[in-house]
Amino acid sequence: MFNRKPSALPTAAEALPGRETRPFPLAERHLVLDAPLEAAVPEGYQEAIFGLGCFWGAEEVFWKVPGVYSTSVGYAGGITPHPTYEEVCTGRTGHTEAVRVVYDPEQVSYADLVKVFFEVHDPTQGMRQGNDVGTQYRSAVYWTTPEQEAVARKLIEAYQPALTAAGYGDITTEVAPAPTYYYAEDVHQQYLYKVPNGYRCHAATGVPFPETA
């Protein structure tokens, strides 16, 4: 049975108040890639933010991509400042579980990252991913440059016919400018490195991108 959670985003009046600063400490370095977790994007590198269901498995997917410098998990796209995991789980913050990816565009393109994003989850499920139900599991692409937005929208347009032909519905992925990204608690960072047999929730469609996309 699916957990019963709100299926609509909260209004500002309904959202939890949050706080002015992060209420928990965070490790300094990535446990797998040995890169700074919170450092500014290095010169020549770029940043991408995605939401694709439970962020544990999502982060693992991206840290394995050649050319990715660092990853982290956090909360994005909502209202409540500096939320906790427990608050996000109530559906009253408006945030989705997100992955921040810092990458070298000389080694991996943004288009390649977007293709990975779409191919490892089902972007047609709305406020849900697999057995995880609620607004925190919605699919999202938060672009950091106009070029990223153009790429994301072009790939959505190219991918939809393939999904439709395979019997899937419309892509529900939220495409929006990158909002404030709030880091999740340290226990969630690189969770599947710490707990190799931990929960992986993603139900990929198995529909590859058209070769021309």
From TrEMBL:
GO MF term list: L-methionine:thioredoxin-disulfide S-oxidoreductase activity; peptide-methionine (S)-S-oxide reductase activity
Gene3D superfamilies: Peptide methionine sulphoxide reductase MsrA
GO CC annotation, single: cytoplasm
Catalysed reactions, semicolon-separated: [thioredoxin]-disulfide + L-methionine + H2O = L-methionine (S)-S-oxide + [thioredoxin]-dithiol; L-methionyl-[protein] + [thioredoxin]-disulfide + H2O = L-methionyl-(S)-S-oxide-[protein] + [thioredoxin]-dithiol
SUPFAM superfamilies assigned: Peptide methionine sulfoxide reductase (SSF55068)
Keyword Secreted: no
InterPro entries: Met_Sox_Rdtase_MsrA_dom (IPR002569), Met_Sox_Rdtase_MsrA_sf (IPR036509), MsrA_MetSO_reductase (IPR050162)
Keywords: Oxidoreductase
A biological-process GO annotation: cellular response to oxidative stress
Catalytic site: 54
E.C. no: 1.8.4.11
Every Peptide methionine sulphoxide reductase MsrA domain range: 47-200
Enzyme class name: oxidoreductase
Family: Belongs to the MsrA Met sulfoxide reductase family.
NCBIfam families on file: msrA
Annotated HAMAP family: MsrA (MF_01401)
Function, in words: Has an important function as a repair enzyme for proteins that have been inactivated by oxidation. Catalyzes the reversible oxidation-reduction of methionine sulfoxide in proteins to methionine.
Official protein name in the record: Peptide methionine sulfoxide reductase MsrA
